[in-house]
Amino acid sequence: MKTIAVLGAGYAGMRAAKKLAHANLDARIILVNRNPYHYEATQLHQVAAGTKEPADVTFDIRKAVSPRIEVLIDTVTGIDQDKRQVGLGKHEPLRYDYLINALGFESETFGIKGAEENGWPLVDIDTALAARRRLENTLANYRNSHDPNDLHVVVCGAGFTSIEYLGELVYRMPKLVAKYDLPADQVKIICVEASPKILPMFSQNLVDWAVNYLKKKGVEFHTSTAITEVRPGAVVSNDQEFRANTIIWTTGVRGSHIIADSGYNQKRNRVVVEDDLSLTDHPEEFLIGDVSAVPDPESGRLFPTTAQISIAQADTAAANVIARVQGRQTQRFRFKSIGTVCSLGPQAGVAEIDMMGKWKLKGAVVGIVKKIVNDRSVLELANVKTMLESN
Ligand SMILES: Cc1cc2nc3c(=O)[nH]c(=O)nc-3n(C[C@H](O)[C@H](O)[C@H](O)COP(=O)(O)OP(=O)(O)OC[C@H]3O[C@@H](n4cnc5c(N)ncnc54)[C@H](O)[C@@H]3O)c2cc1C
Fold first, then answer.
1. Is pTM, for the whole model, over 0.90?
2. Which of 6, 147, 156, 372 is deepest in the core (most CB within 10 A)?
3. Concatenated DSSP letters for 118-178?
4. Averages of pLDDT over each 10 residues, the chain, 391 residues
């Protein structure tokens, strides 16, 4: 009997396992993940800001997948592509005939001095909770320290994750100010971004709306400001210094370090794949989600790393593994975006939806759209019961 291993139970891995289970193959299907739970990475900014609890954005993998899937809770330590073997932290190495590699993303520091030591990234439940504790402990400390930097937060980067985090933060801050009896007029929230553009994936009028919304809530933006160093208590850009005792590091992502460690031909731990998502030299292996680099035939550029694209890639990779097992031709990956939604806290946001026409939305309605997107995502990975339990 053939063994199909799926590494990582994020958007890509969960969806691939679900699709493989439906195929009724005469094969052993094993899903390997570090934790017994799946987390909705698209909601980590809410856990970090304290507007959602980990239980709201996680679900038990074993309860969510078909009994046909063997779930192995362990950490992947390496992949030996020639031996077709996955190294694991606690178990014996896992031999496979087909591999779906979906190990996901890590924080990217771009080699900036001090970023890893002094910035708080949002990459999983543990880091989101650590960022939240840092924020709350630092604010609470102000009552003893009277250090103005305890009331300052710097968010590094102005892409999707940074802006969604800022939206949650400005929503939560009045509650934190009341909770710790803080001087509201001395709280400072600063966003520092190297590029001249904020939220580059949105139309300018929606970007302007989002920026004005956040500015009105007190966020100070510094674009075209490349960060050169992060020190304890300060983000530095050449001769400028932004002082804060909470520094959130959301400048971008790279793929899992397991990719480079295992000797793949990669750039920022992302591997360029064939148009059917397999590897040229290893047709038995498919890379999907944030570890893959997939050229978009229309634009010529790589597809961005998003949950939406990860799920679409999982459908193609699962269909192609099934095709290989059954001796059929594989199919090309095709993707049509249904739009992008950026929340600014639970009651605002901007969205561009491409369904039955093009829709540009802003304001409170986006909160509702985001809820629909989140529910749909759980449904695509798990089942109705899991979706209802996570509400
Ligand atoms: C705050 C935030 C907001 C976002 N908002 C959106 C959005 O609105 N829309 C959108 O489309 N995208 C959004 N994204 C991007 C999206 O979350 C990612 O593109 C998506 O999570 C990638 O899915 P994935 O399955 O490849 O990887 P991941 O979600 O990173 O999943 C990887 C899985 O592998 C496991 N794993 C990792 N390493 C190991 C190991 N060594 N051993 C065992 N298991 C391991 C992890 O624990 C995890 O379960 C957002 C990201 C962030 C951080």
1. yes
2. 6
3. H-EE-SSHHHHHHHHHHHHHHHHHHHHH--GGGGEEEEE--SHHHHHHHHHHHHHHHHHHH
4. 97 97 94 98 97 96 96 98 98 98 97 98 98 98 97 97 98 98 98 94 94 98 98 96 98 97 97 96 97 92 93 97 96 91 94 84 89 80 69 58
Tokens found for residue 369: 């759209």
Given a contact cutoff of 8 angstroms between Cβ atoms, the answer to whether 79 and 91 are in contact is no
Residue 164 designated active-site: yes
Ligand 1 contact via 331 beta carbon (within 6 Å): no
Ligand 1 neighbourhood includes 121 CB (under 6 angstroms) = no
76 C-beta closer than 6 A to ligand 1:
yes
From the options 3.50.50.60, 3.40.190.10, 3.20.20.190, 3.10.129.10, give the CATH code of 115-249: 3.50.50.60
